[in-house]
Amino acid sequence: MTARDWLARRTYHHRSFPPERDRDTTVSVCVPARNEAETIGSIVGTLCELRRDGAIDEVVVVDGASADGTAEIAARLGATVHQQDELMPGFGPTLGKGDALWRSLSVLSGEIVCFVDADSGGFGPHFASGLVGPLLSDPSLEFVKGFYRRPFAGGEETGGRVTELTARPLINAFYPELAGFGQPLAGEFAARRALLERLPFSTGYAVEIALLIDVWKAVGLDALAQVDLDLRQNRHQPLGALVPMAHAVLLAVCERLVREGRMPELPSATLLTPGDDERQVEIVERPPMASVGVA
Questions:
Q1: Which of 67, 80, 77, 72 is nearest to 31 (CA)?
Q2: For the whole prediction, is pTM greater than 0.85?
Q3: What's the distance, Cα to Cα, between the start and end of the chain in Å?
Q4: Which residue among 107, 195, 215, 240 sits deepest, i.e. has the most Cβ atoms within 10 Å of its Cβ?
């Protein structure tokens, strides 16, 4: 199947999947968060309403030691809150977002697991229902990614600079089968728990691109889908803050190329920028949760 064929067959809109109440499959929604007091309330409130309506079963916030009251807000609104370093403590301190997602599998109970980011403004129930809907309605699907428009505050340009300048060129060059994904680095995705349990998770910013490639290799392109979530508004970081993100994406792709024998060795993980000290962009890979004996 080509990317063009997949795009026509496996691209949906969230309006096709209103919140579903009559279902046989349990659904957990997880929100990794760190210092997101400004937006966490509306997100958790919306998800807890879905839970009360019977559309999902579990709302979990995995908090990264927030200093602004994020965890307290989430707990007060009805989410189950876990501190990320208290999950799987034998693996040491949590190494960024990807590690937090991996550790969350140790406490999430749903047969379908949905992840949404904690910094979205204008969050609506369609973020969760749109992502899990295809999995509930089509047993052949294993993994669903969200995509959306990301305008800057003025509306004249769009965000997603690491996606367009790093991830998309790498995908087109080395994994063209995945070129149809509108937001390959989106933090909004849902998958069958059984699939997530048998895959490794890259830590930090590498998690989304690594997981997309690994899922595709595990189950094939036709088991993947994407859902149009319309609009996502969040803070856009300055260019300097995006450099380590882009480097992590590059390293994650190169690591897979080395494993496939298409590249002799990994590029340096040392990040050098004019006027800055050297810094390491470390990517650690956590083992499949099923192999750890916790999930």
A1: 80
A2: yes
A3: 33
A4: 215
Q: By the 8 A CB rule, do 276 and 247 touch?
A: no
Interacting residues of 71 by C-beta distance below 8 A, sequence separation 6+: 33, 61, 63, 81, 83
Residue 248: pLDDT over 80: yes
Per-residue burial over 117-141, b if 16 or more Cβ lie within 10 Å, else e, is bbbbeebbbbbbbbbbbbbbeeeeb
Nearest to 57 by CA among 162, 228, 193: 193
Residue ranges making up the domain that contains 110 = 3-292
Domain tally, the chain: 1
CATH number at 239 reads: 3.90.550.10
pLDDT(137) > 80? yes
pLDDT, one tens digit per residue, over 144-170 is 999 998 665 555 455 578 999 999 999
Query: Do the beta carbons of residue 294 and residue 108 sit within 8 Å?
Result: no
62: left (phi over 0), alpha (psi -120 to 50) or beta: beta
